[in-house]
Amino acid sequence: MTLDGLPERGSWKGLRAENGKCQFLSWKNDFKPDGRFTITFFRDAQQTQPIQTEHGTWSAANGKNELRTDGVRMPDVYTYKLTDVDTVRYVSLASDPSGDCQEDYDFIERRIRG
Questions:
Q1: Distance between alpha carbon 35 and the CA centroid of its chain, in Å?
Q2: Counting C-beta atoms within 10 Å of the first and last residue's C-beta, which end of the chain has fewer, N or C?
């Protein structure tokens, strides 16, 4: 099932480019069908060194994905485009001012299967 072209549930992994303006991170994101998400950030691409885990709600409509992390005042908002059934490209439109990186950036998330 999809919601406006965005897979509405499942596990995804992504990473920031190591040569970008923001600190390198990788993450695993679990989108749940009830509109909740859990995301764990890691220091390494192999995802063996966790930094922190966040929980919140997510929604997607009209080509935009909004993540509202529990305890954070402002949501993170991204445009998204499926490049294939297992790959989504996101571009940051807005993020909470307390976030770790305020630079505009884009990234790819890939579905974790099995």
A1: 14
A2: C
Domain assignment of residue 92, given as a range = 2-111
Q: Which CATH number goes with the domain that contains 86?
A: 2.40.128.490
Per the CB < 8 A criterion, the answer to whether 92 and 105 are in contact is yes
Q: How many domains does the chain have?
A: 1
Residue 1 has pLDDT above 50, yes or no: no
For residues 72 and 66, is the Cβ–Cβ distance under 8 A?
Answer: no
Tokens representing 35?
Answer: 């509109």
Region label for 47, one of left (φ > 0), alpha (ψ between -120 and 50) or beta (otherwise): left
Distance between CA atoms of 63 and 42, rounded to whole angstroms?
27
Among candidate residues 85, 89, 57, 61, the one with its CA nearest the CA of residue 1: 85
Quickly count: other Cβ atoms within 10 Å of residue 42's Cβ.
19
Q: Any idea what the Cα angle at residue 74 is, between residues 99 and 111, rounded to 5°?
A: 70
Q: Is the pLDDT of residue 46 over 50?
A: yes
